[in-house]
Amino acid sequence: MYVLSWLSLFIQVAFITLAIAARLYYLAELIEEYTVATSRVIEYAVWFSTAVLIGLYVFECFPTYMIGVGLFLAYLVYFGLLQTFPFIMLTSPNFILSCGLVVVNHYLAFQFFAEEYYPFLEVLPYFTFCLWIIPFAFFVSLSAGENVLPATMQPGDDVVSDYFIKGKRGKRLGILVVFSFIKEAILPSRQKIY
């Protein structure tokens, strides 16, 4: 019975992992299809996160440095990333700054919640709404800029010259490539023979 319990646990974890991967793949496809709506959703999430941070500062007396880093991250960095959305350059200073500040913000939150006792059901909403939702939305939407029509490219990009110089853009980057690779590894497609 002991071996069967471990085997069933392994199978359940595998099914849950596949379900999460399929949902992320579907979510990435939706984001690629509706980039304007995604930009609005991320903008509203930033405003909501800002309101939550201000509320925590006013009503719960959270530390000023932790709220300050969160507000700086929300206002300057995330809104800066939204200015060029869906085109997010991984080497841009704004993106690198956002990654660094997310790590700093997590460190400050872990340090605060280690010193101050809050029940887990109160800590989880802070992490969800103030730390995880917006970076997760940007992470899933990294591949959204690859399939946008050429008319909406950034100024200065010459799509026709770029096509002939670099060749056909058959390469896809981002999270969809990872999911496509996993899908092909698990369920290889069949070739039609004529």
From TrEMBL:
Q: Tell me which domain of life the UniProt entry assigns to the organism this sequence originates from.
A: Eukaryota
List the record's Gene Ontology CC terms alphabetically. Answer: COPII-coated ER to Golgi transport vesicle; endoplasmic reticulum membrane; Golgi membrane
Which molecular-function annotations from GO does this UniProt entry contain?
Answer: COPII receptor activity
Q: Does the keyword Lyase apply?
A: no
Listed name of the protein = Protein TEX261
> What is this entry's stated membrane topology?
Multi-pass membrane protein
> Its Gene Ontology biological processes?
endoplasmic reticulum to Golgi vesicle-mediated transport
List membrane-spanning regions. Answer: 6-28, 40-59, 65-88, 95-114, 126-145
Which Pfam family, any one, appears in the UniProt record? Erv26
Q: Which PANTHER family match?
A: PROTEIN TEX261, TEX261 PROTEIN
Q: What is its main location?
A: membrane
Query: Carries keyword Iron-sulfur?
Result: no
Write down the InterPro entries for this protein, in alphabetical order: Svp26/Tex261 (IPR007277)
Sorted alphabetically, the keyword list is: Membrane, Transmembrane, Transmembrane helix
Q: Of which family is this protein a member? A: Belongs to the SVP26 family.
Quote the subcellular location field of this record. Membrane
